[in-house]
Structures are given as structure tokens and as C-alpha cells.
Amino acid sequence: MTTVREPAVTTSEELSVWPASTAEHHRGDLAVGGVPLTEVAERFGTPVYVMDEAEVRERCRTYRDAFPEAEVLYAAKAFLCRAMVHWMAEEGLGLDVCSAGELELAVTTGFPAERIVLHGNAKSPRDLETALRLGVGRIVIDSPSEIARLAAAVGPGGHQKVMVRVVPGISAGGHEKIRTGTADQKFGLSIADGYAQHAIGRILDQPQLELTGLHCHLGSQITSVKPYLLAVRRMVGLMARLHEQHGLVLPELNLGGGHGVAYRPGEQALDLTALARKVRAELSEACAAAGLPVPRLIIEPGRAIAGPSGIALYHVLSVKRTGDHTFVAVDGGMSDNPRPALYGVRYALRLIGRQSTAPTAPVTVVGRHCEAGDVIAADVQLPDDVHPGDLLAVPVAGAYHVSMASGYNMVGRPPVVAVRDGHARLLVRRESLDDIRSRDVGL
Ligand SMILES: *Cc1c(COP(=O)(O)O)cnc(C)c1O
């Protein structure tokens, strides 16, 4: 089945999921941050990840503008490197980290530790030791056993601000594996079964732990405001009960992240302006009804800042036609982007660098790894004359690709390049065989 291709001009709809700086360049090329993608591929090789610095910064500003009264923490697990740490510091965001590694990278890059929140359903002794040594702003308690462990590590003379991760019993998110608001998953302490209340009572018994508020994170890739409003109601409900029981007035409320983005043209992103307006209204109403002061809001977007700011570039290595399938294999795959294999996500991938007049045909773009599930994009339309050497670009590749990259097949993890004002610079270099060999120390 082939369809007649329209004139090879990129439509604004097609570009709607690309960074705002994206512009048509000659010969079917696109420029991002003023740098043609063909140039990036040539200079740094492929696969390569490109981050549009201005897009990252603009997305941070959009959050600061929409939530001027709130603390905005970037969820580092979406993608972190030292440049990202700098950009977040300069844009006035805090950081949400979930390991000693993310935390140390941020603090050793100069990020103020008091603006960092540590998460994790199973924090290791090293995570906690690093957090206390570096003076992390808050630690989010995720299990009952953590309370005594943390209190002991802080010591009787010490002091640490903590929050509690609460499971509000709300199902939201783009895929079962990224829904974290209900009780049947590993994160947090449930309101419904009383675990959250019980844990809070035990925290209050530890004088060196200062409980500053409640935290919840419903899931990821959420595109509707409604679950967040329900979360506000449930969280304020719990705050009201804690006020009755313990006379507790909590100054902070952390609603987590999960703000959805469009991966393909026509898909819906979460409306941040509506989210801010409705959450604000719901929060003041619920607090007024409960006779509580409005807590300071904290939000933790990851994907919505990094995702649409990044692009993955691959070269086609082979094209294989089998039965009624065409497989276009590229030089990366599940080792740099495990998301299709994990969640079955879909991308609006496109050909870059030449204008084809061939009709388009449905193809499956696959990776180079030794797994049949190593698919980058199933059933996408590409020009029928796609051939080895062609360059393909995947938009909305900035979050949960490089940060989830693996060592599978010893291909080496890809480099990350920043583009800005017509210049490209290397942020993270490609992992070499020497890097891999240097860890392999036994015989
Ligand atoms: C993953 C995570 C986030 C960020 O989620 P996104 O979907 O990337 O916005 C925020 N807070 C917590 C606790 C998380 O685990």
C-alpha cells in the first residue's frame, strides 16, 4: 500500500512537536537552534542526541510564569548532565533526584543542595549518606522502614526536612507501567489503608526530622488536569485529618510531575496554564473548607521540560523487505531508547537531509540490537526509496532516552550535543570501547 506523497515541504503541523527554533533548511534538512541536523550528524556521528538549549530554557520559563507562587523542581531522571544542571540553576528551578549519583552530579556542578529533593522507593545507605553529607533540602520518605533508618543517620543532634510520599488512590498516566497514583504499585504510602497516617505519626516522634509536607506523583504522560484536582482534594483531606489528630499545619504540598507532552502531531499535551489556574483554585477552596492555610505548592516536571527539547538522529544501515513488511534498520535502538519496548510508545520520525519525490510507504524502523522487540517506530510512513545512508530524526527524544540508555551489545551510549544560536557543542561524549574496556578489570 503506497500513497502519493505531497510536495516535500514540512508542514507546521508536522513541526508542532519539534522545538520552536526548528526551521526548514535546504535539501529536506531541518535546522534546530540554528544548526542543520545533517551538520550535527556529520560532525558528531550517529546515533546522536541533540538538545535545543533555548527550548529547555523556554520550557522552564513557561513553568515559572504559569506557577509564579510555586517551587518548580526539574525531575533529573528525565535527562541530566552538567549543562542541564546549569540551565536549571540559571532558570531558577530546583531539582528532584532519585540517587546519590544524580545528587552528586548536581551538587559537584555547583547546584545548591538545599534546592534539591531526594526521592526513591528504596534509598540505599549510600543515597542517604550522600544526601545528609551534601545537605539536601528535603528527603521524601517512601516506606515505613526508612523513618528510623533516616533518623538514626541524622543523629540526635541533627536536623533534616522530610516529606512523605502519599498514594492518593488515583489512576492516571499514559501507560500501566508509569502509573504510580494507586495502591497496587511499589511507590509511596497509601491513604486508604492508613499507612500514610501511621508513617506520619512515626515521623512526628522523631525530633530531628522536620515534616514539611506531603508529596504525591500520580504517574507520567498525563494529559488531563482532572487527576491533579482530585489529588489536591485527597491531599488536603489528609492534611485536614493530620491537623485534627496532631494539630499539624504543613507548609508545603508537592504534587509531583507527570505532565504529558505530544509525541506526534495532533496528540494532546497537558495544558499548563489550565493546570496552574485550576490547581490554584482547587487548593485555595479545599484549604478554606478545611480551615487550613494554603501550603506552598511544589511541582516536579521532567518529561515536559526535556522531552520536546531533544532530537535523536540515526543513520539507516539496512532496508529489508520481508513479506508485506519493510524493516528500516538504524545504527541505534533499544540501547539508547528503550521506551517503545517498555511502553509501546510511538514517534513521528522523519527523513532528514534529502528531499524524496518517491511515494511514501508504511515501514517499521528497527534498531541494531539482537532482540526482535528492538523497534523504534512501528508502522510509520517514509519515502519508498529510503536506503542505507539516509538520516532519520526522532523528535521529542529529550526525556527518558539517554537517561535510560544501556550497555546492551556494547554499542556504547550515544553523545549529547547542545545547539544554540547557530552553534553546536558536545555536552556528553560518545561512550567508547575504551570506556567499556576500562571497567572490565578481571580475567
Ligand atoms: C518521574 C518523576 C517525576 C517526573 O515525571 P515526568 O513524567 O517526567 O514529569 C516527578 N516526580 C517524581 C517523584 C517522579 O518519580
TrEMBL record:
> Its annotated pathway?
Amino-acid biosynthesis; L-lysine biosynthesis via DAP pathway; L-lysine from DL-2,6-diaminopimelate: step 1/1
Q: Which cofactor does it need?
A: pyridoxal 5'-phosphate
InterPro entries found in the cross-reference section: Ala_racemase/Decarboxylase_C, DAP_deCOOHase_LysA, De-COase2_C, De-COase2_N, De-COase2_pyr-phos_BS, Orn/DAP/Arg_de-COase, PLP-binding_barrel
What positions does the entry give for pyridoxal 5'-phosphate binding?
Answer: 258, 300-303, 400
Give the catalytic activity: meso-2,6-diaminopimelate + H(+) = L-lysine + CO2
Q: Keywords for this entry?
A: Amino-acid biosynthesis, Decarboxylase, Lyase, Lysine biosynthesis, Pyridoxal phosphate
Q: Which residues bind substrate?
A: 303, 339, 343, 371, 400
Q: Where is the Orn/DAP/Arg decarboxylase 2 C-terminal domain?
A: 51-398
Sites of N6-(pyridoxal phosphate)lysine modification: 77
User: Which domain of life does the protein's organism represent?
Assistant: Bacteria
SUPFAM superfamilies from the entry? Alanine racemase C-terminal domain-like, PLP-binding barrel
Question: Which EC class is this protein assigned?
Answer: lyase
How it assembles, according to the record, is:
Homodimer.
Q: Which HAMAP family match?
A: LysA
Biological function: Specifically catalyzes the decarboxylation of meso-diaminopimelate (meso-DAP) to L-lysine.
Family assignment from sequence similarity: Belongs to the Orn/Lys/Arg decarboxylase class-II family. LysA subfamily.
Query: What NCBIfam families does the record point to?
Result: lysA
> PANTHER family per the record?
DIAMINOPIMELATE DECARBOXYLASE, GROUP IV DECARBOXYLASE
| Record protein name field | Diaminopimelate decarboxylase
**Native organism:** Streptomyces lannensis
